[in-house]
Input
Amino acid sequence: MLEIRDLRVSYGKELVLDGIDLDLKRGEALALVGESGAGKTTLGLSVMRLVEGQIRGNIRFDGIEMLKASEAELERIRWRRIAIAFQNANNVLNPVHSVLDQVTEPIVFHGLMDKYQARGRASTLLGYFGLASDRFNAYPHQLSGGEQQRVLLAMAISNYPELLILDEPLSALDATSRSEVGKLIKMDGDCTKLIATHDLDTASKLADRIAVLYGGKIVEEGQASQVLSRPRHPYTRALIRAYPNMTTVKDLQAIKEGLTRPGSGCPFHPRCTQTIDVCRTLAPETVTISDERKIACHRGGIITRLTTSSISKSFGLIRAVKSASLSIEAGETLALVGQTGSGKTTLARIIMGLCQPDSGTIYLDGAVANYSSKNFYQKVQMIFQNPGQSLSHRLSVLQAVTEPLDIQNIGDRAERRAKAMKVLGEMGLPQEENFLYRYPHHLSGGEMQRVAIARALIQDPVLLIADEPTAFLDASNQARILKQLLNLQEQRGLSMLYITHDIAAARKVSDRIAVMLEGSIIEEGPANEIVTAPHEPYTKRLICSASSLHSSQYSGIEQAPV
Amino acid sequence: MFNKHNISIYAIAFIFILMLNFILPRMMPGDPVMAIYGNEALVAMTPELKAQLVERFALDQSLWQQFVAYFSGLFRGELGYSYYFNAPAVSVILGRLPWTLLLVGTALLISTGLGIVLGIESGWRRGSKTDRTLLSTLMSLNGFPDFFLGIILLIGFGVTLGIFPLSGALTPYSGLSGIALMMDILKHLFLPVGALTLAYLGGSYLLTRNTMITVIKEPYMLTAKAKGLSQRRIEYHHAGRNALLPVITRTGIWVGKIFTGALFLELVFAYPGIGYLTYEALMARDYPIIQGVFLVVAISVLLANFLVDLFYSRLDPRVRHAY
Amino acid sequence: MHINIKREIRESSTGKAGIIILVIMIMLALLAPLIAPCNPYHQSPMSLLPPSFSHWLGMNHVGQDIWSRLLYGARTSLMVGFGTGALATLIGTAAGISAALIDGLYERIMMRVIDTLIIIPMIIVVILLSAYIRPGVITLILILSFLSWQGGARVIRAQTLSLKEKGHIAAARTFGASRLYIAWRHIVPDLGPILLVDFIYNVRRAIFLEAGLAFLGISDPNMVSWGTMMRDALSYSYLDAWRWWLIPPGIALSLTIVGLTFIGHAAEPVIEPRFREVGIA
Output
């Protein structure tokens, strides 16, 4: 019923919407998700042609060309077939008229009812949205923010429009009111809704589909539940990671800083961690990557870094790894959880090329992994359990960290030193002389492991394989390192294969968890699903016996029979 | 608004005016009777009359007793005795007051009303030819002193074109009644009201226009447009209704200005209201009349201000329900 | 307020027009003694003469040269106008700033005084006083200033109250600055545009009142004033004399006031940037 094609809106020199294509079917609810200033409100206003700036493009509502319609036609359509519930700000309601009058006004004006009947309907609507009846004749300034929001909603649907545009409809309400009013909005099934919000909770509860807006373009679009649980665009994923909610178990991560509106190329490229050259110069087209999903990304969305395909390895009679298949996306952490002897370390070594599999293939960035090229080891690095052993006691900190560069013969001495300083800084280590020339046995366990990580980072890898990196460290150092690893992911888009026996730590840093038992990967899925609703009995046992500060057992998960 | 601050202000203003009225003549050098009645009157007074007056107004008593006498006189509705008119000041003043009220009231209504409408239209179409024309015309008009406007109108329409009568409130001794009388009064009223209106039109116009400009930028204007309402409805019911408010507040002050403007214009048109009375009294040094008029006008203005404040709270719900 | 008030006025066409008018008037007033052909006070038996080469606007009813009286009238009007304007703005500023900076009883009393004076129609008081005193230029300036400062005071107080909360003033207080120092160094400069607009409107009101009082005949009869000229001319309105006797002072008076109005209007956007006119206004 609503078709938007190549919509461009600018205010003077500032381009707010840069080529929007959107379709809305009758009866469906689409959420426009984005941060402030992304252009959601402008898009909503454009549909009713209420923007003050320059508009180009095509908006077709039920066959009517909105941008070419006359002012008289628009006046007939506005609030009769399309209505908008504005974001609740100061003075959106006229201060000198009572709220009942303001809700009644459009009903009477569009000739639908006489004044008496209209007031009746207005009262019903206000009551429907939960406004106390003694407040009907109040003036806007006498009502609380939540009450004003209810008035705005009632006013919007006063003429039962075919298309309803909602701008942050629940923002002014407190938590309990939100669910109450949210249900009311959702109950009206016939009405087509366009919801502009920055709040992912609102989007998930009210919408069937989501379109993610960034830098004036739609970067991802698809089924609401799908987009939120399996985002395909780097921005959408980052947005979800930054949003505090009761579903996600991983710690909050911010989005890398960068220009929000670069002059050219993909609008997200300054903050994206998987850019390639073309991202900087050319804006990506929107492509349909699956049946319900559209994405605008030169790389087709979040790319897959590593895939292991049916890897098997036996040591004599012991089958260490049985047909293990995994994949890790760019900028994602996959935790491989299992007990000692489950095969996880073997699998890691196979991935790193330190051990040859009996069968199966490893793919890196889509191509078969070639361990004889320098390329592989520049991109994939490993962090071992025991830093005391992985760092040579002959080499000073500086020498250890620059070793990879020395081996690969990259840059001259000064450049190597500069890079070393940079990665040491990233790991929060001092960069002064007396530290650079210190030897590992003079460092603490935590410091050593951080030096090892710095060493791993110096070639700017895209994947880190961390094999129980905090096994030899105390809790505080473990926490510090885990947080630093999350930061690295945030800033560099680093993928991680995090190998551990500790599922409690795993869930804090991983997006997905794979559980390994006796060489097989028995269960795998998003971290929050594995942790709250595991299928396998073994997984359940793992969770029950994981560290807990509660004296009784982990709530909600029954103890599976041993 | 019935709050303490406002009531106390009106009370203080009232008392101040009474005091001023009392103190002024007594501050003049010389004989208080002379100060109150003026030189010319005294010359014509016999000593007995003078003694009577002294006794009547307690002029030979202490200041405090005089004050008491003054106040009690006021309560009884006595404002002194006009020598020039040979009648109690009160009756002279009350006789002339209705004409001035007619003049001022009509001018106030028309200038405020028209000013508001023009201001709304102008503000709504800001920058357009209509707006610019109205703006420059009314601003220029605003610069003309009311008495000069009156003079121009008098000379233009009265003397030269002879359409309107040159003086008075009605044709004397004409024996008209009913509709014919009303028409006669209106004919005489036309030029003075015209001058007064034109002189004060600018004030309400400019204020309304300025307010419209700020109101148009408010969020609820977008809401009104989104409702698909007609331009006229948005302009008046939504914007205009808000733009009214400051003008109404100021109306109280303008009443004072229009009253004094009436003073000048009654002089120009020899219109028999309080203004002309004041002038006659000023020339004749008839101080009781002058003081009486001052009192009446000042109190009228205060009353008008008070009423406007009351009325305003009905218009602006934010004030009415201030908590 | 980074907007330059001088630039604002100069850039609007109304502002420019206003300044031109005012400058002309000031020049005429200043140069009056030099360019007036006759002594404005000197009476002669040649009364009610129409304009001629030696007397550009003719003679009035007591044989005085109208053109010379017109020029000297400008002096009177402008002197009273600017004198009152300056004094009234000064008093208003002092009252407004002090009411805003000094809390407690002083503020409450001052506010009562200001609001009371605003409500009382001062023109009537002025008329009453003048009727008794028959003021000349200096007295007139004093009377008018003391009875018209209150409007500006209220606005200044409101503005000072909001300025007071700004960071740099709070900072100055932490350095131990006295209120006088703060008023002088911080508040007055920021108030600049408002003070200028207040001054302009005070001048305008004073010029209007001076002419009005003269017209009523209650100011000093020896003062040469446009108001007096109009009053005298009015009583001879049945003659043609009004053309060169009544109209010129009226036009001169109106022009001066309109000029000031224009300047004031052009200066307003400095205080309220939204009022800046689009296009020519």
Summary: The longest helix of chain A spans residues 475-492. Chain A is about 35% helix and 25% strand. The first strand of chain A starts at residue 2 and ends at 11. The two ends of chain A are 57 Å apart (CA to CA).
